[in-house]
Amino acid sequence: MKVAQTILGEKLFTLAMKYTFYGHFVAGEDQFKIVPTLERLRSFGVKPILDYSVEEDLSQEEAEKREVEASVSSAGTNLSEDSADSLPQYSVDKTFADRRYKVQSARTYFYLNEATCERNMETFLECLDAVKGATFGTGITAIKLTALGRPQLLLQVSEVIMQARRYMMDLAGSTGNILTHHKTIQDLERYLGNVADKAEVKEFLKKVTSDKDGILHLFPWTGIINEDCQLSETFRVPDPVTGQMRRLISKIPPKEEEMFRNMIRRLNTIVKTAQDLDVRIMIDAEQTYFQPAISRITLEMMRKYNTEKAIVFNTYQCYLKDTYKEVCTDLEQAKRQNFYFGAKLVRGAYIEQERARAAALGYEDPTNPSFEATTEMYHKTLTECLRRIRILKDANIDPKKIAIMVASHNEDTVRFAIKKMEEIGIHPEDKVICFGQLLGMCDYITFPLGQAGYSAYKYIPYGPVNEVLPYLSRRAQENKGVLQKIKKEKRLLLSEITKRLAKGQLFYKPKGKYVPI
């Protein structure tokens, strides 16, 4: 692309791109020029997920430099490295600092400064306006949390969450889903034994909360999305032997505390705007060393904003070994705390990078061992969600309390979802299951779904030609890999081209008369 741009010049190159890669994978340059594409999709029963796909074209050296600088605290340590219990996966490693390594299908943000994060927030807000203005209120906007703040803070919060889980496992005396252990505040007091009478421990126990079933929560997680949250003071637990209060997070300087509050403020602004505009937000999944923080923050946003409908959706990557357990845990929390649960299920974008990083840093590989195991995880997780939706229907509770997007280009998975919906008794008009694919890919899946009355979406990138080149180059490479595997799609495309040539309709554009569900 860069060579062609040099040879052809900017105007001719832009024109050529519009009739090749750009025209195939991108809807237009701005929120006004994408309208014809959105209207055409809508006529075939397909709705949009908008994504402003402008990316910085950074060198590997520059990307590594930015990531390392933004992942280490000015206090001199990025995580609790002074602790023997520190977890190696939640620290930055220069070898993997360029998060684009072995990743084609996901956009990557690299932190520069707070002003850049503010601009990213403004871009997401513009996407929300575009969704509302051009999609009749049926659209979705996708965002990434790494666009809104310093990655070091996500690393630290992620480690805190995993350290808290370890503490709870010690209390429970076993492994697995901590919500199944039904440990109460009284159990915690017994666990602390002789040290429970110490002043600091008593103060800690006063702050421990429990839900309606009496199940304890070590920390007031709802406070994490308050703009006055102080991380350093929040995440401390008593040592069961000495009774001394132990930090699960290293001391964070005031400036970085402010950065975290800024990140939460930006996200609150985006989600509140989405709620006011009646548009939905999908928060993308990212690498496993960020994901505990991303999922916890997203879940708290659900608790705050998903009180009447699913506004906020989390994303779950099914190539991870713990996905089923994580989804079950979050579904259980939504049920107990009475908020609407939204989830996008994907296979995932970072599997090769995750495997390489785990091997290099010496921690357990978090990914499933094979494509078949990932498919099994996807189907198992989806089935559990469908089962719970059916329970809601049978109990005359709003089935929309659980909303799921099946985001997959795999025809077998889409067929599995449709079959399971029929078996369990969930109908398209229930509006609890939707399907999603990328613009320009697997149209033979998306369009029949929309025309058959299912809730179908296309992930719609847009942005100026020159500024979406990194996105386009990845899509071209990814599509090549996909098409090598999907013989059916190539056969269908060839058949359609032959048919149009025979009829003299090579540039024929069919018109639909469908209304999206």
UniProtKB/TrEMBL annotation:
One of its GO terms (cellular component) is mitochondrion. Converts proline to delta-1-pyrroline-5-carboxylate. Its cofactor is FAD. The keyword Oxidoreductase applies. Keywords: FAD, Flavoprotein, Oxidoreductase, Proline metabolism. SUPFAM superfamilies: FAD-linked oxidoreductase. Pathway: Amino-acid degradation; L-proline degradation into L-glutamate; L-glutamate from L-proline: step 1/2. Belongs to the proline oxidase family. The lineage of its organism: Eukaryota, Metazoa, Ecdysozoa, Arthropoda, Hexapoda. This is Proline dehydrogenase. InterPro entries: FAD-linked_oxidoreductase-like, Proline_DH_dom, Proline_oxidase. The keyword Oxidoreductase applies. It comes from Anopheles minimus. Residues 37-486 form the Proline dehydrogenase domain. Signal peptide: none annotated. GO terms for molecular function: FAD binding; proline dehydrogenase activity. It catalyses: L-proline + a quinone = (S)-1-pyrroline-5-carboxylate + a quinol + H(+).
